[in-house]
Amino acid sequence: MRKSTAIAMCAVFYAMPANAINNYNTTNLTCARTQAILQQEGAAVLHYRDPRKPSIPLYDVYAKNSGYCGYGQYAKPYFVPTKDNPKCRARICKDQSISR
Question: Which residue in 5, 34, 55, 100 is deepest, having the highest Cβ count within 10 Å?
Fold first, then answer.
């Protein structure tokens, strides 16, 4: 009986969808679309090129609020460059141990 229960539980967990986090290049999106993605999905990896050194790619997890950040993190106000706004408001997930 225990073996069949264990097999059934494995099948249930295998069938559950993974909560993968999507990633987006903000320079291909408008500011409004970037903000809408965070509102709809809760969190996403946003990436873009460093405005000062375009050869350097930058990326991090951005979130709707701190509840979507990892354990021990908070959502700090931040800016990302978008197609129509070089300083689009967003919230970046940062460790609480890092000074604000």
Answer: 34
Give the predicted TM-score (pTM) of the model.
0.75
Residue with tokens 């990633």: 23
Measured distance CA(24)–CA(34) in Å, rounded: 8
Flag whether pLDDT at 14 surpasses 50. no
3-state secondary structure labels for all residues of 42-57: CEEEEEEECCCCCCCE
CA-CA distance, 42 to 21, in Å (whole number)?
9
Distance of CA 69 to the CA centre of its chain: 8
Q: How far is CA 63 from CA 5, 70, 95, in A?
A: 38, 10, 13
Handedness of CA 82, 85, 86, 90 (dihedral sign): negative
Q: Which residue in this structure is represented by tokens 């225990």?
A: 2
Long-range (24+ apart) CB contacts under 8 A made by 11-14 are none
